[in-house]
Design a protein that fits this description.
Structural class: alpha/beta
Number of helices: 13
Helix content: 25-40%
Number of strands: 17
Distance between the termini: 33 Å
Number of domains: 2
Order of helices and strands: HEEEHHHEHEHHEHEEEHEEEHHEEHEEEH
CATH class of the largest domain: Alpha Beta
Strand order of the largest sheet: 4-12-11-10-7-5-6
Radius of gyration: 21 Å
Shape: globular
Largest sheet: 7 strands, mixed
Length: about 400
């Protein structure tokens, strides 16, 4: 069955994914099963989406209740209780003031960029500062503020007035910031750029620069938010709040959902007609978001505990394979091994042995398992990575 589905996919999909030749059919806990019945320990989790793993009973009940109601979608012409309650829960958890729901991280970042431009427009501020090696999505605004040339190639011209500073280098930001700066957008923990945490002094410095120039500080927590780093939101590691935070991935519990979350002065930037998303706050997605948000504290606590355990295990691999692993880094359950060999070689070996992992950037092997992962799961996963590295080291 795997081969049949892969063949059908190749015949009918556009050629924009370098997919692996398995088709996932079912799952339970942190394990998925393909169409041929092979099981895999999943340390990809839909790329940091499936925080509750697979087959969560509360998610099942929430979806069943929505389906039983007969209303999957209402549009934003009307309220629906699931979206309203999810927004209230999100504001309470983050200490924020207002929420805009959409469908993805790229859409959340588009909303944040429009908020930044609207906020700055009346004050003659049009410039947005982003960072090299960042990743913010594939839509035009989001890909423009993505500081990686490979994502821009073939799509020029990019949007104007976007400047790129060096991540964790405050002086490079100071050199670009001015009275024209409308916003600074940053991932507190860079994901696609290679699992690189921001330094505390760097984040504090960005807050100071934004305050100095009356610019908005935007935290892209699409991947690093929702408990993954060991706190409910990554900004909580730094002791400061952004003006806007963007979320997606784990927020919808496996269904498409994103959010732009506003703090303080950012909450009233949008007026009716400024921005919209037809499916934003979709009933089913919002019902699952309620489930995820209800478990956010316990998920964060497990991510903290298990993240430290996984981090120590990856540090051991770095010591064991100094010629293959140049660094081990990350926060919570968002971890990476920086390799001297192509990550895809390790990914393929691991897949053969029943473990799903993925890459970040050109050189990093990424680990973003469900936030329900256990020590036993981590031991099994690291043993497979160890075995794979040993085989590659012997070649």
């Amino acid at each position: 069955m795997n081969d049949d589905i892969v063949k059908l996919g190749k015949e009918n999909y556009m050629n924009n994914y370098a997919q692996f030749p398995i088709a996932i059919k079912s799952g339970k806990g942190v394990t998925v099963i393909d169409e041929d019945g092979k099981s895999y320990l999943d340390f990809v989790a839909g790329i940091a989406v499936n925080a509750l793993g697979y087959g969560d009973e509360d998610e099942k009940k929430a979806l069943f209740d929505v389906i039983s109601s007969g209303v999957l979608h209402t549009s934003n012409l009307y309220y629906n209780s699931h979206a309203v309650h999810a927004a209230a829960m999100l504001n309470k958890a983050a200490g924020s003031d207002a929420v805009f729901f959409c469908n993805s991280g790229a859409e959340a970042n588009e909303a944040a960029l429009k908020m930044a431009r609207k906020y700055g427009s009346a004050k003659g501020k049009t410039e947005i500062i982003s960072f090299m090696h960042s990743f913010h999505g594939r839509t035009y605004g989001a890909v423009t503020v993505t500081g990686q040339e490979k994502y821009h190639k073939g799509f020029a011209p990019m949007l104007p007035d976007v400047l790129y500073a060096e991540f964790n280098d405050l002086s490079s930001v100071e050199a670009l910031a001015s009275d024209k700066t409308a916003a600074i957008i940053v991932e507190p923990l860079q994901g696609e750029g290679g699992i690189i945490p921001a330094e505390k002094s760097f984040i504090e410095g960005l807050r100071s620069i934004c305050d100095k120039y009356d610019a908005l500080l935007v935290f892209d927590e699409v991947q690093c938010g929702m408990g993954r780093t060991g706190k409910p939101f990554c900004f909580m590691h730094y002791g400061i709040k952004p003006d806007i935070m963007t979320l997606a991935k784990a927020l919808g519990g496996g269904l498409p959902m994103g959010a732009a979350v506003a703090f303080g002065k950012a909450k009233d930037i949008f007026s009716p007609g400024d921005h919209a998303a037809t499916f934003g706050g979709n009933v089913a997605s919002a019902a699952l978001a309620e489930v995820v948000l209800s478990k956010l504290d316990e998920l964060s606590q497990n991510a903290d505990k298990m993240g430290k355990y996984l981090g120590a295990k990856l540090d051991n691999l770095k010591e064991k394979y100094p010629k293959l692993v140049s660094d081990a880094r990350g926060l919570g359950l968002m971890r990476g091994l920086d390799l001297t060999i192509p990550p895809r070689d390790v990914i393929s070996k691991c897949m053969e042995k029943g473990l799903l992992v993925c890459s970040a950037g050109y050189t990093v092997l990424r680990f973003v398992p469900p936030l329900i992962v256990t020590e036993s799961d981590i031991n099994k996963a690291v043993a497979i990575v160890d075995e794979s590295l040993a085989e590659l080291a012997s070649h």
